[in-house]
Amino acid sequence: MGFLKGYARKLGVLEYLGTWNASTNTPNLQSSQGQKNGYYVVSVTGSTSLDGVSGWEVGDWAIFNGEKWEQIDNQNKNADISTHINRVDNPHNVTKDQIGLSNVNNTSDMNKPVSTAQKEEINKTAYYFAIVL
After folding, report:
1. How many structural domains is the chain composed of?
2. 45 belongs to a structural domain
3. In 3-state terms, what secondary structure has residue 85?
4. pLDDT bracket for residue 98 (50, 70, 90)
């Protein structure tokens, strides 16, 4: 996204012109011709050549800079987001302190201390089951 912000500063305000079918060239775009700062989002993959660019994928942007068409490749930016989200090996090395869990005791239930009140209730239940059985 930083690249796009820099590009927008270079060109000025961008204007969305709609979608573009890069296979059929619809609407019909021509090299070195277009509305300055206008852009289309590719809706169908294709190989229409615009100012030397011919590998268009769905989601790419075709932007006219006032002299020629340029491509913003929006592919693979989030292709592996599901894989990344499902990782459980802490790839960013987040600590308990960073997410407010510094005081959480991460022990198994079997190893947690039991209060006197809890112990008394457990004993009553155990006694009850012993009598019933």
Report:
1. 1
2. yes
3. helix
4. confident
Query: Tens of pLDDT along 39-85?
Result: 999 999 999 999 999 999 999 999 999 999 999 988 765 556 677 77
Structural tokens at position 67: 């002299």
For residue 42, give its domain range.
2-72
Question: Which residue do the tokens 């169908």 mark?
Answer: 44
- For residues 23 and 63, give the distance between their C-alpha atoms in angstroms, rounded to a whole number: 17
CA angle in degrees (0–180, nearest 5) for 30-32-33:
60
Q: Tell me the two tokens of residue 131.
A: 């009598």
DSSP H or E stretch at residue 90? none
pLDDT higher than threshold 70 for residue 127: no
In this prediction, residue 86 carries a pLDDT of 75
